[in-house]
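Lab intake sheet, docking and co-folding queue.

SAMPLE TYPE: protein with bound small molecule
LIGAND NAME: flavin mononucleotide
LIGAND FORMAT: SMILES
REQUESTED OUTPUT: full 3D complex as structure tokens
PRIORITY: normal
SUBMITTED BY: R.K., bench team

The fields below were copied directly from the construct record.
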Amino acid sequence: MRVFQPIDIKDTDEGPFTFDGEGWTLITAAKAPALGETAPKVNTMTASWGGVTYVWNKRCAVIFVRESRYTREFLDEAGRFSLCFFDHQQFRREMKYLGAVSGRDEDKIAGARLTVSYDNGIPYFDEAKDVLLCHTLYHQTFTPEGFHDPALRTQFYPNGDEHIMYIAEIRKVMIR
Ligand SMILES: Cc1cc2nc3c(=O)[nH]c(=O)nc-3n(C[C@H](O)[C@H](O)[C@H](O)COP(=O)(O)O)c2cc1C
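RESULT FIELD (auto-filled):
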């Protein structure tokens, strides 16, 4: 198991937590063990939309997850999740795979050969470079009447499956 160093949450203001471009993240959450099983079920997905922000006087992460994602079920059940940032060059193949295949269809985490660790019940990956541990405060699905520019709706949601915005308090930051 690798050693992570907790840092002050205020340091996220200047941290490396950009999601776009080279900074994809993995959103990971756990469901309680199924009947007859002992281990929680964990799912993860690659995300490039989101960021770190300040709202309700708290440092928060914001992510955007389409309704159809399997990970969405985990986020809603757990109310807590991690955002794991990786060395982009080294883990590009894994991040692409985790963003192309659904956990409904195969055991993606085993497929990507990533190691799950837990911090207060929140799953994250040992191989990550930086980790944000988050508790959801608010979520809301994008609605048609909310769009000021209808072209965005046509472009991104021709068949529905809108994104759900999750705003989550960053409870802990760990860096390698
Ligand atoms: C680079 C990249 C960025 C992505 N960003 C997002 C995102 O921000 N929100 C989203 O809902 N899906 C995003 N996806 C798609 C999901 O990761 C993908 O649909 C994934 O297979 C969902 O897995 P799941 O069904 O196991 O949850 C992204 C995929 C890639 C490759």
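REVIEWER NOTE: The chain has a mean pLDDT of 91.
SIGN-OFF: pending second check by T.M.
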